[in-house]
Design brief:
Blueprint (H helix, E strand, L loop, with lengths): L1 H36 L5 H4 L2 H6 L3 H10 L12 E4 L5 E5 L4 E7 L2 E7 L5
Length: 118
């Protein structure tokens, strides 16, 4: 019985990790679309409410994004991510930065970078 329970727990955790991995990759694909291609309609799907508030509000943040040069190629390849000991909080690393990711409204969203003051 213990072996069956252990196998069940292991399979459940692996499927959960695979699901989180897919969600994390989708988040950073959308991040690229916002930051590099200016698809600002995805801002709410990529950034947490707190992040947007801390950066002048949604409209101000969108204006800042539109001032960035557009790029067609994908640059931000997710290198790694890990779940923290804090519930629904993750760290994700891409080439330029390490992000703090939270789960908000059932979606993973960027809440800041490790260098940001919280």
């Amino acid at each position: 019985m213990r072996i069956q329970l252990t196998i069940f727990i292991l399979l459940f955790s692996l499927s959960s990790t695979a699901s989180d991995d897919k969600r994390m990759k989708e988040l950073f694909q959308n991040y690229d679309k916002v930051m590099k291609q200016h698809k600002v309609e995805l801002v709410d799907d990529v950034f947490s409410k707190k992040f947007l508030t801390d950066n002048g509000g949604k409209e101000d943040f969108i204006e800042k994004v539109k001032e960035l040069p557009k790029e067609k190629k994908k640059i931000n390849i997710l290198k790694s991510w890990r779940k923290t000991k804090i519930a629904n909080t993750y760290f994700a690393k891409i080439k330029e930065a390490q992000f703090i990711i939270i789960e908000e409204d059932g979606k993973l969203k960027i809440d800041g970078t490790v260098s940001d003051e919280h």
